[in-house]
DNA sequence: GGATGTGAACGACTTCACAGCG
DNA sequence: CGCTGTGAAGTCGTTCACATCC
């Protein structure tokens, strides 16, 4: 609707060199990072694109293309220095520093996330909890006090949280998300099965568990047929 | 590696008409389905591609292309009948029947999934629980007994579970997955942060929470810069 | 008029294939 | 020789634009 008409979308000259960093590639960066971290501890100080590809189920060319976005840190005939590669990945992913995280909705999912060691390991620190249930407010979960929704603005500001995990019921999600945005949160990881409407400057990643399970059912169903 | 060389991968004739159903499209099917179900209850008996697109943040052309995979069930000048569209989506997703699901690893994440109403609503029924912790074995969670890992073969067979949710710690994941496969499971939804190696005939969907949070950090980081 | 269905254009991502260099 | 880095080719998915039909 209301897009451009005919010739329109011409870009600079030819196709140049610089391709943009694709979203899919960013997901693989996390994969590389997690896979490399044990290597560093085990003293594997060099890794080839072939090895990474095989162990992660990718092609070697793709691994090299991805890593090329981090700069020229490989050595021809040898491979990539594990240490440098990890550092470059962390920098590129924006996790070469600590991120403070708020959690809205303290149910089982939130508790699972609170105990998940992977977050802390990658520099994510959960600093604030919120729940609408009066029975939860004031209680402590994993050492953190649960706050009422009307404390969002104050507590988010104090805690320095920039990211939020949204684990409230579907019908409350949009309202709570709006509150988080008003409180100054910059990005939301949404677990509620609804499509959130947020201002453009707020980043959003959605994880929908029912959709994943449906995808699995589809694949199995398909496997059974042709 | 060890791929084909030159001419290789030729496909039937030209490019014909039939395009394959993309993975991304399947994910959107779930989205459409969830969005449409309330409409049916509210008596909205027709819906246009434009409306769906706007409410889900897509383009109308994409919605039409997706729905075209389900057959020609729209009426020009009118839209799609909600009821038919829902039925076609469920059939295509393979959820026009019940799926029995086993859960391996009864931690907080599993408990969250057990309570998640969206699963049951879409025809997924959790029928068996497993955990390696002796303190859990024999206890009941949400009405289901927790079984020891060595009962996998017997219980999976009895319960008729075809899908499994894998919510065990990373270092146990591959071993438990192998056990699930040996027990006759046909698809695994993996929450452990490892890349599983499975036989080709077993379907796999992976949900990695740390990766999602890292994506969010990347987006926020990027938004802050250029 | 209004909305579907769809070839064609477009753009994004992946793989190929090889030059370049340690 | 082995492995990286990268244009070029290929594949896949999305958007455009319009014929078509109620």
Give a structural overview.
2 copies of one chain form a homodimer. The N terminus of chain A is likely disordered. The first copy, chain A, starts with 22 loop residues before the first helix and ends with a helix. In chain A, helix 1 packs antiparallel against helix 4 and helix 2 crosses helix 3. The first copy, chain A, has 2 domains: 87 residues, Winged helix-like DNA-binding domain superfamily/Winged helix DNA-binding domain (Arc Repressor Mutant, subunit A, Orthogonal Bundle), CATH 1.10.10.10; 113 residues, NAD(P)-binding Rossmann-like Domain (Rossmann fold, 3-Layer(aba) Sandwich), CATH 3.40.50.720. Chain A is globular, with a radius of gyration of 21 Å. The first copy, chain A, contains 9 helices and 9 strands. Chain A has a 7-stranded mixed β-sheet, with helices on both faces. In chain A, strands 1-2 form a two-stranded antiparallel sheet. Chain A is an alpha/beta fold. The structure holds a DNA duplex (22 and 22 nucleotides).
């Amino acid at each position: 609707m209301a897009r451009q008409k005919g010739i329109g979308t011409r870009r600079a000259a030819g196709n140049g060199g610089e391709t943009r960093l694709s979203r899919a590639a960013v997901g693989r960066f996390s994969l590389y990072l997690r896979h490399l971290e044990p290597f560093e501890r085990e003293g594997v100080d060099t890794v080839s694109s072939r090895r990474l590809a095989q162990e992660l189920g990718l092609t070697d060319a793709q691994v090299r293309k991805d890593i090329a976005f981090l700069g020229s840190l490989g050595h021809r005939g040898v491979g990539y220095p594990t240490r440098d590669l990890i550092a470059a990945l962390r920098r590129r992913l924006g996790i070469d520093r600590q991120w403070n995280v708020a959690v809205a909705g303290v149910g089982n999912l939130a508790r699972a996330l609170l105990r998940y060691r992977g977050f802390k390991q990658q520099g994510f620190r959960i600093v604030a909890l919120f729940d609408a249930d009066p029975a939860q407010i004031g209680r402590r979960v994993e050492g953190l006090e649960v706050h009422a929704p009307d404390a969002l603005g104050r507590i988010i500001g104090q805690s320095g949280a920039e990211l939020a995990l949204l684990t409230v019921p579907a019908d409350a999600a949009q309202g709570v998300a709006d509150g988080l945005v008003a409180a100054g949160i910059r990005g939301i990881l949404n677990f509620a099965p609804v499509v959130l409407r947020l201002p453009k400057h707020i980043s959003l990643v959605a994880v929908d568990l029912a959709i994943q399970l449906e995808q699995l059912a589809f694949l199995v169903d398909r496997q059974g047929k042709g």
